[in-house]
Amino acid sequence: MERAKILKMYGETERLVREEERRKMTGLSRSTVWRLEREGNFPKRKQTGKNSCAWLMSDLLLWMNERSGYELCSGKEINP
Predict the structure, then answer these.
(1) Full-model pTM
(2) What are the C-alpha distances in Å from 48 to residues 19, 26, 34, 44, 78?
(3) Helices (H), strands (E): how many in the chain?
(4) How do residues 11-70 score in pLDDT, each as one tens digit?
(5) Strand partners of residue 46
(6) Within the chain, where are the H helices?
């Protein structure tokens, strides 16, 4: 699915998502995301400053949309 389509589907605009919001959206801890990123199973973060990073909203939505049964913005799976 393309970025514009997924953003429209969820009523979002392209923007950077910081750690706290990412955690609320996915329900995954910082260490789990770090491990998944290293394994190539989670979108890569973008460096936004010397000590800060963020993810593209479309990258997170695409990742979440690829997982069947994933409930957006709650971080809980519907049928685990």
Answers:
(1) 0.82
(2) 12, 20, 17, 13, 33
(3) 4, 3
(4) 999 999 999 999 999 999 999 999 999 999 999 999 999 999 999 999 999 999 988 665
(5) 54
(6) 3-9, 19-26, 30-39, 57-66
